[in-house]
Write a structure and sequence with these properties.
single chain, alpha/beta, Rossmann fold, Dihydrodipicolinate Reductase, domain 2, 5-stranded parallel beta sheet, 5-stranded mixed beta sheet, 10 strands, globular
């Protein structure tokens, strides 16, 4: 079997975890190349880890990878996805909230025959929501609770003069649609956008965001009412070295990659 070459865009907490796993060996996969904003820092880290891998510019990535995993800030999503999709290749997107402001990328994938993959990430139950959406879903509601420091600097808080410093009790800082949440908290709520795309869309999926000083984990609770089932789910995620990102997100990427050539594939 010819291995599938995997590229990594971004060497933050998630990107480094995925690169390490690929360098150790994953069935049917090989590390093709990485792209990073700071090439010198990226080269130093790769050498420190003993990983031999080319560092390339994003526009050159289609020559080195069959699938590119996006682990970078949402602001560069277009730069990451467009070359791969134009070359009829696949991109695994973690900054899924940014897809709402780049519908042309979805059109490009459809036109060229590429594919955008959204892994489960830090959420739970996307398989169940996707299945329910084959019928009629009446409502999807999500409540997210996060340590206050992980929400610091969010555009919505800054623009509205909302402080989460020194809280002694939980504070609801946002209530609205998934689409609005993605604009207001671009680095914090990719999970609700993934949920909305799996179900009834970003304008009907509702979310509350709470800053809670009593917790140390990123907590998400979901309630779904559909004609096929009514269900609720909750998850408490341990933050990675980047407090805005849950540790399980990188593991979700690895699980999605492992499915590409798995002899038995579990889940939708």
């Amino acid at each position: 079997m010819t291995p599938t070459r995997i590229g990594i865009a971004g060497l933050g907490a998630i990107g480094r975890t995925v690169v390490r796993a690929l360098s150790r060996g994953m069935y049917g996969l090989e590390l093709g190349a990485v792209a990073a904003h700071n090439h010198v820092k990226a080269r130093d880290w790769l050498e420190q880890e003993g990983i031999a891998c080319p560092i390339v510019k994003l526009e050159a990535m289609p020559s080195h990878a069959d699938l590119l995993v996006e682990c970078a800030p949402a602001a560069v999503l277009d730069d990451i996805c467009r070359p791969m999709l134009s070359a009829r290749k696949r991109v695994m997107v973690l900054s899924v909230g940014a897809l709402l402001s780049h519908p042309d990328l979805i059109e490009l994938a459809e036109h060229k025959g590429g594919q955008i993959i959204v892994p489960t990430g830090a959420l739970i139950g996307l398989d169940a929501v996707t299945a329910a959406a084959q019928g009629v879903v009446h409502s999807v509601r999500m409540v997210t609770r996060k340590p206050p420091q992980s929400l610091g600097g969010a555009p919505y808080l800054v623009e509205n003069g909302i402080s989460v410093d020194g809280l002694t009790e939980a504070k609801c800082v946002f209530s609205g649609t998934a689409r609005d949440a993605a604009k207001c908290f671009p680095g914090n709520v990719n999970v609700v956008v993934a949920l909305s795309l799996a179900g009834i869309g970003p304008d009907r999926t509702m979310i509350e965001i709470w800053a809670d000083p009593a917790i140390t984990r990123n907590c998400h609770a979901i309630e779904v009412d559909a004609d096929s089932a009514r269900f609720s789910m909750s998850i408490e995620n341990v933050p990675s070295e980047n407090p805005k990102t849950s540790r399980i997100t990188a593991l979700s990427v690895l699980a999605a990659l492992a499915k590409l050539h798995a002899p038995v594939r579990i889940g939708t």
